[in-house]
Design a protein that fits this description.
Shape: globular
Number of strands: 9
Distance between the termini: 18 Å
CATH topology: TIM Barrel
CATH architecture: Alpha-Beta Barrel
Strand content: 15-25%
Structural class: alpha/beta
Helix content: 25-40%
Radius of gyration: 18 Å
Number of helices: 10
Largest sheet: 9 strands, mixed
Bound molecules: adenosine monophosphate, zinc ion, fe (iii) ion
């Protein structure tokens, strides 16, 4: 039987709303065989997910790294890297530290304009890597915005919006080198997700492939059919593998766990290429 493989999910270790324990349980309940935990810029959820792993579920330990190229933000999925490799670990720590300062700054800007959100509230919502969804939830709790999605509008904390503050992001080629240097495998997350802001051109993806990128996340809720077809053709041309994943965030987003899946061939290639840590089996 074909294994059901979801290679991109978030837990309370970043901006998801499901604990690592509940995430692996839910994954098995809905019939997944392989789940990757890919919290933003952190491996903090790995241990809990590993210890709660139900029988029959395989866990791919990963992270989603905040990157930039030519002023455009992009996300890099990193799989099965060695979390102790010092160069990459130091950069993840810097990314998280920067997120903390910028989140505090966004709260200050909101307070200065009379909106009653407090840093304590945001901190209480953020168990791990802090992100804009935590601020969005605080805004929602105060009735300042009607939904998390509304908080991402330009009037609020949407990218380059009124109360938005930028964060540290790694040059994407440097990030690919750090991931592969730590024995990991790098996949470009939602490369064509244009509703989040500008996306990079094919020439940047070609450059990323040169730097050691392994694949493109093609089947993603933020890609339409045309974008998927284009990415699939580009992946074939550049000899990259393709993946499909939910990017599940619990109740922070509407997408369901297992909404998109990765082929066994792509998954097997990722596992074969990785030398950092092993896939864990429950
Ligand atoms: P940050 O990493 O703190 O800059 O926040 C960006 C994160 O917020 C993304 O990685 C998404 O997970 C999430 N996000 C972006 N846009 C939305 C949206 N419209 N609704 C809910 N979550 C979003
Ligand atoms: Zn997120
Ligand atoms: Fe992302
Ligand atoms: Fe994500």
């Amino acid at each position: 039987m074909t294994r059901r493989i979801d290679l991109h999910t978030h837990s309370t270790a970043s901006d998801g709303t499901t604990t690592p324990t509940d995430l692996v349980r839910q994954a098995r309940e809905i019939g997944l065989d392989v789940l990757a935990l890919t919290d933003h810029d952190t491996t903090a959820g790995w241990a809990e997910a590993a210890s709660a792993l139900p029988p029959g579920l395989s866990l791919v330990r990963g992270a989603e790294i905040s990157c930039i190229r030519d002023g455009i933000s992009l996300h890099l999925l990193a799989y099965l890297f060695d979390p102790a490799e010092p160069a990459f670990a130091a950069q993840r720590a810097s990314l998280r530290a920067s997120r903390l300062g910028r989140a505090q700054r966004m709260v200050e800007l909101l307070c200065a304009d009379g909106f009653a959100v407090t840093w304590e509230e945001v901190q209480a919502l953020a168990d791990g890597t802090v992100g804009r969804p935590h601020i969005a939830r605080a805004l929602m709790a105060h009735g300042i915005v009607a939904s998390i999605d509304a908080a991402f509008a330009p009037e609020w904390i949407g990218t380059h919006g009124r109360y938005w503050v930028g964060k540290l992001e790694l040059d994407v080629v440097t990030a690919i080198e750090l991931v592969t240097g730590a024995g990991g495998v790098a996949v470009f997350a939602h490369p064509a997700a244009s509703k989040r802001g500008r996306t990079v051109g094919d020439e940047v993806i070609a450059e990323m492939a040169q730097a050691g990128l392994a694949g493109l996340e093609v089947d993603h809720v933020d890609h339409d059919e045309q974008e998927r077809a284009h990415l699939r053709a580009l992946a074939a041309e550049l000899h990259l593998l393709t993946t499909g994943s939910s990017d599940f965030h619990g109740t922070s987003k509407t997408v369901q766990l297992g909404a998109h899946l990765t082929s066994e061939a792509s998954y097997d290639e990722i596992v074969t290429r990785a030398t950092g840590v092993d896939v864990l089996t429950g």
